[in-house]
Protein 1
Amino acid sequence: MEDRDTPLTGKLVEGLYTEAMLLADEARSHFDAHGHDEREALSAGLRLGYAVESLKVTTRIMHVVAWLLTQRAVLRGELTRFEGATPDRRLGRAEPGDAGVIAQLPEAARRLVEASEELYGRVARLEAEMLAPPEPKPSPARALWGQLERAF
């Protein structure tokens, strides 16, 4: 990975990290305690879907947090940009939610699923932008050659 401008700044990484940690705390609180009564009111099949979706929320958030910690290390010079972009340090794959199940979940659980998918999607787009090959720079020699051709 060549050294080039990156869309990441310390402020962006810290903002995303704070958002991810707040969402993680909210998800833990809801799925461990507050959502208990909601979960018990669901059918057995939907309770299983609820459990699966809660695991997906946690997985998405933890992948985001791990990736952001890597980006922090890169920005602090603890890792090179090349080291931070190795496959084992990239954003982990997270399965999308099951729309059929999500539609039947209580509002608070649905909101957590959607928030985790949205956060994961933003971070995935940032990573894709960082890993995209750089735009080729026009050759100064070719530009000069073009000027010469147009002049004559």
Protein 2
Amino acid sequence: MSAELEVRAYYLIVEETCSDGGKKVTPPTRKAAAAAVFKNPYAGKFQEDLSLFYKWSEELGAILTKKAVTALGIKPEEVQGYGKAAIAGMAGEREHCAALMHPALGKPIRDNVGGGKALLPSAKKKGGPGTAIDLPLGHKDAAFVRSHFDAMEVRIPDAPADDELVLIVGVTDSGRPHPRVGGLQVSEIKGEDGLR
């Protein structure tokens, strides 16, 4: 089945933390999530070949990542963390989310954040309009950097409808505010294997 990508809406959410634990955060830590709401051509029917979603994720991945980076007002190479998530409406499947996120979405994200060696953390679920999802976040070059283990709740008030999908890309310009649980530091990243 061949279908045209029908995007109904884009959303952009920026979270800026100025104080945490009663202590000022200087500079504030910032996260941005860009989401696309679009028609699911496979809603309500089983489709064996989901490769159409691979193609769509390449297109949407570039658009959403650029929107998120621009929202933070930084250069792509200044992005420190990233993540991805998807929600299928109730007539869709979690596998539709997987097809959007796993085979092809990583490349357009990395192409628009100045690289990235680490796997992109991801989350997927089914739900109706207003369903919240915790967009997982991690350091783009080293998965073991604990200061960047984080999440950002994303909720679209009127999506997804039963026959829609929501794809979300998130980026950060820093880790959590006041991290103090040890582990690999950003200054110690080797950037060789995506872990350390």
